[in-house]
Amino acid sequence: MLGPWRSSVSFFFLAIAPFVSAGHSFENTAIVRTVELGGTVVHVTTTYAVKALEDGSNIYTIALGQKEHEATSALTAKIKGQMAPLEVEKLGAQDGDFQLYDIRLPGYLKAGGTTNLVVETVQTHVTYPYPEEASQKDGQSLKYEADLLVLSPYDTAVQRTKIRSPFPQIHSYTEPNVEFTEDAPVTKSGATLTYGPYKNVFPSANKHFVAEKQQRIYVHYSYDHPVLEIVKLERAAEISHWGANLNIQDNIHLRNAGPRLKGHFSRLEHQSQAFFQRSAPHMLPGLTLHLPAGIRDVYFYDLIGNVSTSQLRTAPSVPKGSQNTQFSVLELKPRYPLMGGWNYSFTLGWDSPLADSAGWDQDLGKWIVGVPVMTVIPGTVIDEEELKIILPEGATEVEFFAPFPALNDELSTAVTYLDTTGRPAVTLRYKNLTDTHAGIVYVAYKVPFSAHLKKPLAVATALTGLFVLAFVWKRVDTRIQK
Ligand SMILES: *[C@@H]1O[C@H](CO)[C@@H](O)[C@H](O)[C@H]1NC(C)=O
Ligand SMILES: *[C@@H]1O[C@H](CO)[C@@H](O)[C@H](O)[C@H]1NC(C)=O
Ligand SMILES: *[C@@H]1O[C@H](CO)[C@@H](O)[C@H](O)[C@H]1NC(C)=O
């Protein structure tokens, strides 16, 4: 229990530690960018082969184009082959269409010293269905748009960008005019496009370069999985020491972000396609979710009522801190197959033994409970999330540690059924979450011993109240006429 909590704390402070020195001089011997195309989520890995031009260099600056920066929901930097993330600091607004980030290298480079820096980013909403409409029989294609050149404040000897499609068919792509090469500006090999190599690119993170040399490119590709988006996720996690239970309930507003369905939905067509196992790629028949081990009383309902067509295989509880990564598998089937442009709102919830995610910290004298930020649906963006962790009644000295900063957070008090004083709640709000954000929020708090007794006391008082009421009621004559 303590391990992950401690490390998340140190990460938290690391991320906000200020930088002490400004940028140094480098050159890029090579930059290679790899773009893994997807549905609503696109993963980008950029490797910078870096050479220091002066002694004592340890702050390297990267640049993202403005559109790219706005679409980037996560950014991590590492030294190639190492696990530890490096400190990244976003710099203030620049005069031009780009955003700079300072990265602190793990050591100081001497002049001529080299290192390989790997920057991974996740982009959301950078693709769109094209054509925008498709009939039930049609395939599904998407367009991805991006900037051609990787920007950098330093000279770059050679750079290239590889764009990989997960499915073999690339319909079309931009063939740009580029001054940094004598050869073909782009080559295609199977499902991979390579833009570059482009040679001797001078410092490009400046207004002039972006205006004169940068260009947009697009790739039009076939995509055979449903393109999913969670427009809104409201997760409520309710901790009960009295019931030794952790209840998690998700209100999910799911959208099929594929091409809008052209014409009417035909169930006959759907059934014949399903029979021949050739369902339209833009149709979502169901989802397979990995839920925690040890859960029970799983429920799934939508606006109409309970949906009972799903299947659940639960895994037994896993001891805390064990390396065992078992999970329960839910094959969730909505009431109807979800076509492109359609929405489906539903509620999914479950109970689990509190002991699976709670621990007592002797040093702090506090309970610590871990609540996952979300249930990951691979390749799906969560546009907006509100995560509410409701603590036991009477909990005090509440602290919480998020795996990454929330857009905003608050500590409030909610009064629920049978509560006498209300229950403190921590609410975190996020935007544009993807599978890289699958972390755990830890909440630490004290519960006075008397708090454990409050609920039975409240029940007892409520019952006594009813007795008294019933007693009085009998003596009052409510008949209008005698
Ligand atoms: C979320 O993503 C959209 C689309 O990429 C972007 O316009 C918006 O600025 C992002 N919001 C945040 C808070 O990152
Ligand atoms: C839904 O199922 C739960 C238990 O599985 C049950 O308590 C509840 O009454 C059901 N609701 C409806 C509307 O059928
Ligand atoms: C689905 O929801 C989005 C907003 O989240 C809305 O713009 C759209 O019209 C909805 N689609 C349908 C078919 O209701």
TrEMBL record:
The reply to whether Endoplasmic reticulum figures as a keyword in the UniProt entry is yes
Membrane spanning stretches: 456-473
The reply on keyword S-adenosyl-L-methionine is no
Q: How does it sit in the membrane?
A: Single-pass type I membrane protein
The record's subcellular location field reads:
Endoplasmic reticulum membrane
Cellular component aspect of the GO annotation: oligosaccharyltransferase complex
Signal peptide positions (record) = 1-22
Q: In which pathway does it act?
A: Protein modification; protein glycosylation
InterPro entries, from UniProt? Answer: Ribophorin_I
One biological process term from GO is: protein N-linked glycosylation via asparagine
Please provide the record's keywords in A-Z order: Endoplasmic reticulum, Membrane, Signal, Transmembrane, Transmembrane helix
Pfam families noted in UniProt:
Ribophorin_I
As for family, the record states:
Belongs to the OST1 family.
The UniProt function text for this chain reads: Subunit of the oligosaccharyl transferase (OST) complex that catalyzes the initial transfer of a defined glycan (Glc(3)Man(9)GlcNAc(2) in eukaryotes) from the lipid carrier dolichol-pyrophosphate to an asparagine residue within an Asn-X-Ser/Thr consensus motif in nascent polypeptide chains, the first step in protein N-glycosylation. N-glycosylation occurs cotranslationally and the complex associates with the Sec61 complex at the channel-forming translocon complex that mediates protein translocation across the endoplasmic reticulum (ER). All subunits are required for a maximal enzyme activity.
Share what the entry says about its subunit structure, partners included: Component of the oligosaccharyltransferase (OST) complex.
Name of this chain's protein: Dolichyl-diphosphooligosaccharide--protein glycosyltransferase subunit 1
Record lineage = Eukaryota, Fungi, Dikarya, Basidiomycota, Agaricomycotina
